[in-house]
C-alpha cells in the first residue's frame, strides 16, 4: 500500500447474504469514494444478536462473494456492537459509507469521519431473494394451550414461515385460538390439518406427543415438538428412524438449546476456560397452581417431566450422554406426582445434579465447576442472557453478555425453518442422540417413580 497519509480510506459493512446487484452497486460506489475500500462482513453470531436470524450463506461464502467483485481492498469481520467506532480509528478511515436504508442511523460517526448514505438499489434485497428461493412453510399448531399461545407472536419474527391454522380435538378451544390469532383455520380433524400444512408444531400434553408425531411423519410433515418430546427411549429412536425414512425433519423444541447465549456458554465451557469440568448443577423451579395440568396429570405430570428437559439438557450438553448412573430423590403429592425432584448423574470423571420443583422454590441457576474455575449462569439460566466466568483470583473474572430476544422461541423456530430448507445444519444444537438420551432419562425417572 502507498503511504497511508495520501490514500483516502473508505469502510462499509453488511451481511451480503445471497449476493445481489444491490450489494455490487453499493460496493462499486463505495470504492469510488476513495482509494482503498475496507468491507466489514457480519458474522452469523452478530446477525443473530441484532435479530437477523435467517442468513443463508456461510460467512466464508459471503466474504468470497464480496472479494469476487474486485472492489474490496481488504475484508474484515464485524462481530460486535461498537466495532465500527473501533475500526474507524484503527484503520484511520476517511469515509464511512452505507446504504440509504440506514439514513441517519450512523450520524454519530460524523465526529470521526465523513458519513455517506448511498442510494439503495430498488427492487432487490437478500430478504426478497430468501423468499424467492424458498417457499413459505405452512405451519399448523397441534394444541392450543399455554405453550401454543406463546408461539404465535414469536413466529412473526421468523421469515419463511406462516402459521396457518390449529388443531385441537376440542373444536371450541381450536376455534377460540384461531380467532384470537387470526389464523385461517381451526379443526378437530387431524387429516384436515395435514392436508393444509407442510409442518406441525406439537404443543399438546406430553403423553399425546408420540401419537401426533408419528401420524404427522407418516403424512410427510416436518415436526417441531415441545419438550419432553417423548418419555421412552425406544419411542424416540423409532420416531427419528421414521423421520429419516420419510425424509422429514423431527426436532425437539427445548428452546434453551437454540438460544445464542446458551450456545456461547457451551462453546466457552468446552474450550477449557475453566479447565476440565467436574460438576454441573442445574435448577428449574416454578411454583404452580394446584389445578394446572402438571399438578394433576397423574401419569405424566410432575416437576421432572415438566422442567427436567431443561436441567438435563444442560447436563448432557456439558458432560455428554454417557452417564452410567442416575438416581432420583423426590417429594410426591398425594396423587403420586413429584412436586420436587433432585436427580444425580454419575459419569466416568464428573458428576451432576438437577433440581426441579413445582411446590418448592429454589434459585434457578446453572453452575459449572472445573479445575481452573467455574461458570455461573444466574436465574433464569434457561433464558441465557449473561454469565460469569470466575477464577480463584477474582480479578480475572469475566462477565459475558449476549442477546436474548422476545420469549426465545424464535430461535428454535428459525432453526426449524433453516433445517427444513436444508441451508443450515443445526443438529449440533440438539442432536438426535441427545434427544434420545433425554427420553431415556425421562423413562428411567417415570419407572423409578412407579
Ligand atoms: N444495499 C443496497 N441496495 C439493496 C440492498 C442492499 O444498496 N437493494 C446495501 C445496504 O444498504 C448495505 C449493504 O448493501 O449498505 C449490505 O446490505 P445487507 O443488509 O447485507 O443487504 P440487504 O439486501 O438489505 O439484506 P436484508 O434483506 O437481509 O436486510
Low-confidence stretches: none
Distance between the termini: 75 Å
Number of domains: 3
Structural class: alpha/beta
CATH-defined architecture of the largest domain: 2-Layer Sandwich
Number of helices: 15
CATH superfamily of the largest domain: Dihydrodipicolinate Reductase, domain 2
The name of the CATH topology of the largest domain is Dihydrodipicolinate Reductase, domain 2
How would you briefly describe this protein structure?
By secondary structure, the protein is α/β, with parallel strands linked by helices. The protein has helices spanning 21-32, 44-49, 59-68, 83-90, 126-133, 146-155, 171-180, 190-196, 209-218, 233-245, 260-270, 293-296, 303-319, 409-421, 432-449, and strands at residues 9-14, 36-42, 74-78, 95-99, 114-118, 137-142, 161-167, 185-187, 199-202, 222-226, 250-253, 277-285, 325-332, 338-346, 351-357, 366-370, 373-377, 386-391, 398-401. Helix 9 (209-218) packs parallel to helix 10 (233-245), helix 10 (233-245) packs antiparallel against helix 15 and helix 13 (303-319) packs across helix 15 (432-449).
Amino acid at each position: 500500500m502507498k503511504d497511508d497519509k495520501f490514500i483516502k480510506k473508505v469502510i462499509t459493512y453488511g451481511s451480503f447474504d445471497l449476493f445481489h446487484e444491490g450489494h455490487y452497486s453499493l460496493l462499486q460506489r463505495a470504492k469510488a469514494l476513495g482509494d482503498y475500500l475496507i468491507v466489514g462482513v457480519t458474522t452469523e453470531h452478530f446477525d443473530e444478536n441484532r435479530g437477523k436470524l435467517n442468513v443463508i450463506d456461510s460467512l466464508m461464502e459471503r466474504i468470497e462473494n464480496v472479494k469476487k467483485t474486485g472492489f474490496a481492498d481488504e475484508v474484515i469481520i464485524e462481530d460486535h456492537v461498537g466495532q465500527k467506532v473501533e475500526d474507524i480509528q484503527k484503520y484511520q478511515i476517511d469515509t464511512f459509507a452505507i446504504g440509504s436504508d440506514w439514513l441517519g442511523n450512523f450520524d454519530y460517526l460524523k465526529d470521526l469521519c465523513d458519513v455517506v448514505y448511498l442510494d439503495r438499489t430498488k427492487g432487490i434485497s437478500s430478504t426478497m431473494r430468501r423468499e424467492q428461493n424458498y417457499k413459505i412453510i405452512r405451519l399448523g399448531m397441534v394444541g392450543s394451550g399455554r405453550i401454543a399461545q406463546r408461539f404465535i407472536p414469536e413466529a412473526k419474527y421468523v421469515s419463511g414461515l406462516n402459521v396457518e391454522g390449529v388443531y385441537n380435538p376440542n373444536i371450541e378451544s381450536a376455534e377460540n385460538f384461531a380467532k384470537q390469532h387470526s389464523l385461517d383455520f381451526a379443526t378437530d380433524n387431524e387429516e384436515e390439518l395435514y392436508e393444509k400444512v407442510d409442518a406441525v408444531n406439537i404443543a399438546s400434553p406430553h403423553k399425546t406427543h408420540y401419537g401426533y408425531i408419528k401420524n404427522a411423519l407418516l403424512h410427510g410433515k416436518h415436526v417441531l415438538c415441545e419438550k419432553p418430546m417423548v418419555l421412552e427411549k425406544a419411542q424416540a429412536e423409532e420416531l427419528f428412524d421414521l423421520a429419516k425414512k420419510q425424509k422429514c425433519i423431527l426436532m425437539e423444541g427445548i428452546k434453551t438449546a437454540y438460544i445464542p447465549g446458551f450456545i456461547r456458554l457451551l462453546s466457552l465451557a468446552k474450550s477449557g476456560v475453566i479447565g476440565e469440568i467436574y460438576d454441573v448443577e442445574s435448577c428449574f423451579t416454578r411454583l404452580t397452581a394446584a389445578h394446572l395440568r402438571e399438578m394433576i396429570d397423574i401419569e405424566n405430570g410432575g416437576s421432572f417431566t415438566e422442567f427436567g428437559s431443561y436441567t438435563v439438557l444442560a447436563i448432557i450438553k456439558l458432560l455428554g450422554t454417557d452417564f452410567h448412573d442416575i438416581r432420583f430423590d423426590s417429594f410426591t403429592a398425594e396423587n403420586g406426582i413429584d412436586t420436587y425432584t433432585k436427580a444425580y448423574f454419575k459419569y466416568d470423571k464428573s458428576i451432576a445434579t438437577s433440581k426441579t420443583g413445582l411446590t418448592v422454590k429454589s434459585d434457578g441457576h446453572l453452575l459449572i465447576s472445573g479445575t481452573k474455575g467455574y461458570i455461573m449462569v444466574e436465574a433464569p439460566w434457561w433464558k441465557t442472557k449473561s454469565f460469569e466466568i470466575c477464577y480463584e483470583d477474582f480479578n480475572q473474572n469475566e462477565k459475558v453478555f449476549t442477546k436474548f430476544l422476545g420469549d426465545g422461541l424464535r430461535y428454535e423456530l428459525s432453526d426449524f425453518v433453516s433445517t427444513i430448507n436444508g441451508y443450515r445444519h443445526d443438529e449440533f444444537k440438539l442432536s438426535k442422540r441427545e434427544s434420545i438420551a433425554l427420553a431415556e432419562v425421562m423413562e428411567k425417572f417415570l419407572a423409578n417413580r412407579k
